[in-house]
Amino acid sequence: MAAVATGASGLAALAARFRTCPITGLKIEAAAETLIKANAVAAVVFLAIGGALGLLVALTRWQAVHLLGPDTFYLVLTAHGINALLLWVIFFEVAVLYFASAVVLNCRLATPQLAWVAFLLMVLGSLTVNWAVLQGDSSVMFTSYVPMQASPLFYLGLILFAVGALIAVLIFFGTLVIAREEKTFEGSVPLVTFGAIAAAVIAVFTIASGAIILVPTFLWSLGYVRHIDSIMYKLVWWGMGHSSQQINVAAHVAVWYLIAAVVLGAKPISEKVGRIAFLFYLVFLPIAAAHHMLVEPGLSAEWKVFNTSYAMYLAVLGSMIHGMAVPGAIEAAQRARGYTNGVFEWLRKAPWDNPAFSGMFLSLVLFGFLGGISGVVLGAEQLNIMMHNTLYVPGHFHGTVVAGTTLAFMAVTYLVLPVIFRREVMFPKLARWQPWLFGIGVAGTSLFMLGAGTLGVSRRHWDITFADAPLGFEYPPTAFLMLGLNGIFAILAAVGGALYIVITGASVLFGARVGPEGPKTPITAAPAAAGVVGRYGSAGTLHLPGTYVLVAVFFVSFVLYYFVNWRYLSELWPMG
Amino acid sequence: MAETSEGEAPKRIPFMQRLLDNPFLLLFLGVTVPTVLYLLWGVMELSQIPVAR
Question: Which domain holds residue A489?
Answer without folding.
Answer: 352-515
